[in-house]
UniProtKB/TrEMBL annotation, chain A:
GO terms for molecular function: structural molecule activity. Signal peptide: none annotated. Belongs to the WD repeat SEC13 family. It is a peripheral membrane protein. InterPro entries: Sec13/Seh1_fam (IPR037363), WD40/YVTN_repeat-like_dom_sf (IPR015943), WD40_repeat_dom_sf (IPR036322), WD40_rpt (IPR001680). The gene is SEC13. This is GTPase-activating protein SEC13. It is found in: Cytoplasmic vesicle, COPII-coated vesicle membrane; Endoplasmic reticulum membrane; Nucleus, Nuclear pore complex. GO terms for biological process: COPII-coated vesicle budding; mRNA transport; positive regulation of TOR signaling; protein exit from endoplasmic reticulum; protein import into nucleus. Pfam families: WD40. Keywords: Cytoplasmic vesicle, ER-Golgi transport, mRNA transport, Nuclear pore complex, Nucleus, Protein transport, Repeat, Translocation, Transport, WD repeat.
Amino acid sequence: MVSIGNAHNDLIHDAVLDYYGKRLATCSSDKTIKIFEIDGETQRLIDTLRGHDGPVWQVSWAHPKFGVILASASYDGKAFIWREDNGQWSNIAQHAVHQASVNSVSWAPQEYGALLLCASSDGKVSIVEFKDDGKPDSISFPAHAVGVNAASWAPPSVSGSIIQTGAGATINAATDGNGSSTTSTAQETRRFASGGCDNLVKIWKFDSSVGSYVEEVALEGHTDWVRDVAWSPSVLSKSYIASASQDKTVIIWTQEGSGPWKKNLLKSDKFPDVVWRVSWSLSGNILAVSGGDNKVTLWKENLNGEWESAGVIDE
Amino acid sequence: MVKLKEIPRTSTFAWSPSASEPLLVTGTVAGAIDEDFSSTTQLELWDLSLLDHSPESFQLNPKVSIDTDARFYDIAWGGASSSNPQGFIAGALESGSLQVWKPEDILKGNSSPVEKSEKHSAAIKAIDFNPIQSHLLASGGSKGEVFIWDINKFASPFAPGTQSSRHDEIETVAWNNNVAHIMATGGNTGFTSVWDLKNKREVLHLYYNPGNTGNSQRSAVSSVVWHPNNSTKLMTASIDDANPVILLWDLRNANAPEKILRGHEKGVLSLDWCKQDSGLLLSGGKDNRTLLWNPESGEQLGEYPIAVNWNFKTKFNPKVPDILASASFDGKITVQTLQDVGAVDKPETKQKSGSPDDFWNPSSYVDTLHPTFALKQAPKWLARPVSTAFGFGGKIVSVKTTGDEKKTSTVIISKFVEDESLSE
């Protein structure tokens, strides 16, 4: 176990390991991002990234095929892209389309390309695409009437690609929504979930005919702000989304094929405090839940489809 | 401060208590008349349609309008419960009538109130729903009258204690946010009274003497607001143009205010202390300005675009304080955002340094046409105190708050071994 205390001069809001588990990025209300090298039980501060004008809420590592790249979201309304070259970190791009705090950033699964999803208090979501020529291309649109707190990409439809080699190719076509016979590529099936201050979780899907994302469904279940959403990277036939809320509950939303989304409370009684964060393990079978009571609990689904405790992260 | 929507009315207003679809209720305000000298008085509901960003949707049309008997001094929307999630809309009318409507009735165009009382003998100036016992409503008005109403037993209101000689015109009533039986009233005599309903008496009064201002008149208290979490702190606003101050009081020492916020150039008309972040306070005044303060540090954080007439009411949305509404006597209620990162760069031109003579030149004064906002302080509700994220190989990174005041963080990387979870 590695424990890092007092790394920043103010509260830390996010800490994420890179793809290899070798580097840790942390971000804080002190407006900085810190990069640590993790080696076994030891850690070493490599760099402090400065440039944001406000608290930095979240960081996200890009897939290593794009280089050593980190994105950050700040109260200053901007998302920054940072890159390391030969041990030197620099700010290589600034995404400044939002008019209020950017609350979350997340890189898309690498199959989709270098795509960054941002959620803002201005009620909009934006997606920046870094094309091969390095030029960013962004779209943004209203997503939640009174502020977006989080957004999470769906995994590429691996289940679809497995099915395409077998008997079920039609299932994949059906998820297209319009039932057309177009060949589904990762490009066309890009989806993500967002959560907002309107208590809703929304599912968005890229529509190539309009060149943007359209709302597929708005999921009602929470009675207060949705603080976080996490789409499971699971490659099973079922899609799983976990949503964490100010109402002290976590809802697991599941969808089979293109059927309706079903909701299940992760546990029937409420958590002791606001639930701030949900994160799936890389295989998608374990969910970590972080609450305002400072506890991180782990959950997994049993064979009856019920969620049960899989442990607690100790101090 | 991105202006989101505009309501073309000179009206007092209240936010709906629910967040999923923010609504505003407005009532034609007392003390004003519109251009066509219309005598119609209305209660109207407005759907903000915040997802519609088209220019034609900027100025809103009412969802529904009903006619009322008289003009409004104040309006409140509260009293929601599990059996009545929409709550009640209560109106303080100039005629002295207190009327209560159900929002679902209004939406059907039904103008008859579910409750109506003429218990007040003169105009009612202010009303407030109890934030803890949501069926209780307090009202205050002319002739020093203050009444407590139970929505379930509306016919028998009671006074919070013996009528205080310190009051003449009650201008504001406010329930304590943490102790259900404590409330405060303020009015034209400059006194703020704190009432204990359990003991049915006035337990304390506050009075601020600004000293030698040469002004013998007592400065009326236009607004009282309680601290969102600290039951002994409250703020009062002075309507006096000669001394337009906002005072922070701690009742544990009521002899003098703990802090004095100066910034308004004319009398202050309204206050709102953010429920989700005690470090944010809104004020509006006769100088047509809306200011944002940190009442704890006393610092002025920002200013919203100026109106062309008195700004008489400014309120955070109770569920989503990222948006706020301000009503002014220029025929508009403006709905805007708390922050706008685009506005940060604008206020550069505000104070030109120059010769001392410029002191007398009004143009060297703060240029209030431009909103100023410094992003100094992120609202507390955005600051996630904890986090967790899975990494490669079953590693889990967690962020926890530590220290007595929860002001520092610790990052922990642990490893999840699936088999261990099988052994209980």
